[in-house]
Design a protein that fits this description.
With 134 residues, the protein is an alpha+beta fold. The chain is built from four helices and six strands. The longest helix is centred in the last third of the chain and has 23 residues.
Amino acid sequence: MDRDNPTPKLGKLEATNPCGEQPLLPYETCNLGSIVLSRMVKEDNGAVVIDWDKLKEVVYYATRFLDNTIDINNFPLARVEQMSKGTRRIGLGVMGWATMLGFLSIPYDSEEARSICSALTAILTGHAYQISAK
């Protein structure tokens, strides 16, 4: 994990959050949130399709929301506050993948599903990083 540590000058990664998604430095936190993919579809001329514009908008607001929680949080220790505001770690994930594929009538193990997953991941990661950097 330390090989991919984005802040190696701050120290070695010591633990993860309780569910193991995010490696953390001592006293660091990570605010987590999820986008419900089954709500990112719409009907278009009688067909169910992914609403890519809505997804991008939700990624924007979810990223801002998670980042804003860092500023308004009440921290138990000054060191936790210092680390949290210094690294500003957030984790934006998804849920409802299988349900979304069901709405789209796309088999879970299909090449089309893998292609959609790649596009979705690129949007989620790319937009979240851009928004976070601002």
